[in-house]
Structures are given as C-alpha cells and as structure tokens.
Design brief:
- The complex is a heterodimer of chains A (282) and B (273).
- With 282 residues, chain A is of the alpha+beta class.
- Helix content of chain A is 26%, strand content 30%.
- Chain A contains seven helices and 16 strands.
- In chain A, the strands form five sheets. In chain A, strands 10, 11, 12, 15 and 16 form a five-stranded antiparallel beta sheet that branches. In chain A, strands 2-3-1-4 form a four-stranded antiparallel beta sheet, covered by helices on one side. In chain A, strands 6-7-8 form a three-stranded antiparallel beta sheet.
- In chain A, α1 packs across α3 (64-79) and α5 packs across α6.
- The relative contact order of chain A is 0.15.
- The longest helix of chain B is centred in the C-terminal third of the chain and has 14 residues, at 226-239.
- Chain B is 10% helix and 27% strand.
- By secondary structure, chain B is mostly beta strands.
- The chains are: A alpha+beta (282), B mainly beta (273).
- The A-B interface holds A 9, 49-52, 84, 86, 113, 115-118, 122, 124, 130-131, 133 and B 164-166, 185, 202, 204, 221, 223-227, 229-231, 233-234, 238, 248, 266.
Chain lengths: 282, 273
C-alpha cells in the first residue's frame, strides 16, 4: 500500500485532535472507504514543526493516484476548515512526493502566499480566522503494509472485548502503526470474495462466526463464543510485527481461548505475519 | 585525504586582498600544495594563498580558517558545497553568489556578505556591513535562494531585491532594508531602519522590534500567523536563534504593500504587549 504521515497542529491539542478525527473518519477499509487512516499518536510541541501541540496521522491507499486524491479531499475538508489547524508532512525523507498543498492553495483564489522554510515550501491560505498553513508536498512510503491482523478467540464477548481493549491500549502510540477500525477493533472479519454473491470483494469470515458453527467449515475451538479482530496498518513490516507482539501479549488474559489470524490462505497481499514467528522475534 | 583543511594566518594582513578562489567544494579534490598555490590578488598584483596562510590537510570539503581576515575579500564566493568555518572577522563579499554548502563566520563580516546568493547557508555570529544579501550592481534580482543569518546588527540596504530565500538579522538593521524585494523573507529581531520594504512587489518583512511602517503600506489586521511561529521555531532549532516567548504566541499587525508599486508584499509587525 502507499502511505503518508501527516502532522496536524493547532493552538491546542483539542483542535489538533478535532481535525485529525475528522480527517481519519470513515477510513476503516480501502474496500469501501477508498483509504485507511488513523491517529498514530499525539505530539508534544517540541515534536512539531511550529512548536504547537499536534497529532500524527497515518494514511493508506492502494495506489499513488488514489493517495493524492484522498489527501487533497480530506485535508481540504478537515484541516483547512478546522480553526487554527495546520498540516505538515511527516515523512520528510521520502523521495516520492504528493503535491497536496500545492493543489489546495487555489482555495486562496490568488491571495495565497508561498513561503520556503528550511528547504520546504508552505502555502499560507487566507481564511476568515487568519491563515491556514499547509505544506506543499507530502512524502509517500511506497511499501506501506495494510491488513496486519490477529484474532482474539474468547469464551464470551465480554472477555473478547476486555482482551482487545487491552491489546489496543498496548499498541496505541507505537510509532509507524495505526488501527483503522472503530476503537481499533473489528467484529466483521472477512474472507476474500463470497461463495454465493459473485460481485462481493469480501464477505463474512464464516469460519470464525460462532452462530453458524454447525452450518459451515468452522475453525473455532470448543468453548469459543466470540471472536474480535485487531487490524493494523503500518509504514513497514517490522512496525507491524512489533505492534502485533505487544498486542497479543496484552490480549492473553482470562477468558481468551486462543489467538489466531485471518490468513486468507496466503492470498491477500505480499506480507505474511506468522504469529509464532512474530512472537518469537525480539 | 584529511578530515579538514586548516588555514592559519602567517602574519596580520594590513591591506585588502582578494581571495575568491577558495571554496570548500574546490578543496575537496586539491592537494595541500595546490591549495597553497591558489591565486590571491593584492591590488592588481598576483600572489599565492600560501604567501599569507599556512595550509594543513588536503582533499577535504571542510575548511577552517583562523585569524583576523577583515582585509580578506571574496572568501567563499561561489561556494557550491562543503563547510567553511572562519574563526575571526572577515572582509567584504563573504559567500557572494554561493550556491550551496555552509559558511560560518565566528566574528564580524564586511559589506555585501551573501551578495546575490543562490543557495546554501551563510551564518555570521557578529555584525555585518551594508548590502547584506543584496543584489550585485546592475542585477535585477538579489538573493535567489538559501539562508543568511546574522546574529548582530546589519548596515543599510539589506536584502535589496530579494527574490527568494531567507535573510535573518538578530540585531538592528539599517535603512532601506528589503528594498524592492520580489519574494522571500527578511526577519529582523531588533529595530528596523527607515524606509523598509519600499517598492516591494511581494515578499515579507517580519519585524520583532521597532519599525516605522511606510505610508504606502496598508493595515490589514492583527492576528497570530502560524507561518511566523513555524519560521521562528525553525530558526531556533537550526541556528539556535532564540526568540522571546511572546513573539511565538503573540499577535502581529499585518500591513500590505508596497501599494505604490503596486505590490503584494507584507510587513508583519510584532505587537509588544
């Protein structure tokens, strides 16, 4: 996948987070949302280009063209609109660039101003509150990894929730990784395609659905009554492995019967995370 | 090949000499002997660099020079890369037309430092003379890229005809600063002299100290520009040039001009509380 990291700053953490939440909204899966996005972590003023509080966001799409379109749409509708917010590139060393700020500058209707600071160009776009500052180009990580995952198989939904919440807490803030689904957790795990509806790209992962255990080729061990999935997107495979290890460690708690993964028969994507190998690595 | 090339003055230089052939990108593939034979002009008389300096090291793009060089003009002119560090004062036209690299003067500089600069960074920890980062005589554009940072005060006509790039003055700046600039930014931490930004088409003057706004600039509003915050943060992190905390969070009055041109430039004046 293609990935970008955005650094959103604002007068306060609250407004930086408001912009980031809107920007990463409805971005759970490229299948229907055209992108996957999430908050990587909050940034202290000392970590941001303008020394204001900030939020780091990771953004994923299937190709370069789509990444450019989605960034322009979303930065334009969320950061540009959010009081006091600014948007900077978080991958300054990336050779491949998307000129999202350059595209958005035209909102200024020729009253925008360009400035170069430290070799990077920024656009000052006049808005009713003052100016919105957006960096001209954003770096692209061409080998981003989408869809890293593990399944928490539990005796009850309460146990599954407690385990996945612990896993999410352990993963949140780790560099280079986001959890794009609600609260970082997925209940509607999917398999590739569908047996009965030809047009479907994905359909329910019935092998892990407890309510249809007798009607399908179930993979569920005895005593499992609820399964939740943690899905991870990362800038690279090592970041995903580190986060999976931390998440699985945290998820192993009372009520959890097994940890598994949606491996899709090895058919989905070039990156495979073998859980035993992930847990063995240091 | 050595880690750096070090030049040390043999004796005080009591008349102006021209030394515009010494740049760190050139010394990166020169032997010590070749460096010592670089031409130096004393008036119209040709001499060699080795007549004035002892040379230690060879084939390095790091050049360090010790001594009072206030009579040495044109040093580092046209530098395209590498590092030139001067422990002492330097004469006129240091880094003129430089295209890249880093020149660091740990002292004062004469006139026309960074004249017509195109890229790289020129840092002067002391004061600088007139026409800092200005246009060469007859040129339509001054600095077209790079960064000039002076910790101390600067003379008249700084950043004249600036086209791109950044000129920063830690102290006061003389009259006619940022005259007829086309783009780019001049930041002045101290007092700005008379007639700033006259005839400017575009570009910015960021004034943290006192400044008299020319009558051809129109007041727009008072606000907190994130751009200034970004810029001051950058200057602190890259050059250690600390801004008063109030200038980061404080308000700036924005004036648009020069309306006499008419221009689309601006003066951002920090509002002292």
């Amino acid at each position: 996948m293609r990935a970008a990291r955005l650094v959103i700053t604002a007068r306060t953490h609250r407004w930086a987070r408001e912009a980031a939440l809107k920007l990463t909204g409805f971005a759970t899966s490229v299948i229907a949302c055209k992108c996957e996005a999430g908050i990587e972590r909050e940034l202290a003023p000392g970590e941001t280009p303008d020394a204001r509080p900030g939020v780091s966001v990771l953004f994923f799409t299937m190709d370069m063209d789509s990444l450019g379109k989605r960034l322009i749409e979303r930065i334009g509708q969320t950061v540009l609109t959010c009081p006091t917010a600014s948007c900077y590139d978080g991958l300054p060393d990336a050779a491949d660039r998307i000129m999202a700020g350059r595209a958005l500058r035209v909102f200024g209707d020729k009253l925008q101003v360009s400035k170069v600071v430290g070799g990077q160009r920024y656009w000052r776009i006049p808005v009713m509150e003052g100016e919105c500052l957006i960096q001209e180009s954003f770096g692209v990580q061409k080998k981003g990894v989408g869809g890293g995952n593990f399944l928490v198989l539990a005796g009850s939904v309460d146990a599954a929730l407690a385990a996945t919440e612990a896993a999410v807490k352990a993963i949140e803030g780790m560099p280079g990784v986001i959890l794009p689904f609600p609260g970082g957790v997925v209940r509607s795990g999917s398999k590739v395609g569908a047996r009965h509806y030809k047009g479907m790209i994905a359909s329910t992962n019935d092998a892990y659905c407890p309510t249809v255990r007798p009607r399908t080729k179930s993979e569920l061990p005895d005593g499992v009554n609820a399964v939740l999935e943690i899905v991870l997107d990362g800038l690279d495979a090592p970041s995903i492995s580190r986060a999976m290890r931390a998440g699985i460690d945290a998820a192993c708690r009372p009520g959890v019967k097994a940890i598994g993964a949606g491996n899709y028969g090895g058919k989905l994507g070039p990156y495979h995370f073998h859980l035993r190998q992930v847990m063995a690595d240091e | 090949m050595s880690d750096l090339v070090r030049l040390t003055l043999r004796a005080a230089i009591d008349q102006p000499i021209e030394l515009d052939g010494l740049t760190p990108d050139r010394t990166s593939n020169m032997s010590g002997r070749d460096i010592a034979t670089l031409p130096v002009f004393v008036g119209s008389r040709r001499a060699a660099l080795g007549d004035f300096f002892t040379v230690e090291g060879e084939r390095s793009d790091r050049v360090h020079i010790d001594g009072d060089l206030r009579n040495v003009d044109g040093l580092g002119a046209g530098t395209a890369g590498g590092e030139l560090l001067i422990h002492g004062n330097i004469g006129n036209r240091i880094g003129a037309g430089m295209r890249g690299g880093w020149i660091d003067v740990r002292g004062d500089a004469g006139d026309e430092a960074g004249l017509g600069m195109q890229g790289g960074a020129l840092r002067i920890t002391g004061d600088a003379g007139a026409r800092l980062g200005a246009a060469a005589a007859g040129a339509s554009k001054g600095v077209t890229g790079g960064e000039i940072v002076v910790n101390g005060t600067v003379g008249v006509d700084a950043a004249a005809r600036l086209r791109r790039g950044l000129v920063v003055v830690g102290g006061d700046v003389g009259a006619d600063a940022a005259r007829a600039i086309i783009a780019g930014t001049l930041v002045v931490f101290g007092q700005t002299g008379a007639n700033p930004g006259r005839g400017s088409k575009r570009g910015s003057i960021v004034a943290l100290g006192e400044i008299d706004i020319p009558s051809t600039y129109e007041y727009a509003c008072t606000y907190q520009p994130t751009y200034v915050r970004l810029l001051l943060t950058y200057l602190y992190r890259r050059y250690g040039l600390a801004s008063p905390e109030a200038t980061l969070d404080g308000a700036y009055a924005r004036y648009c001009g020069d309306t006499g041109v008419p221009g689309k430039g601006e003066i951002l004046k920090f509002q002292q509380v």
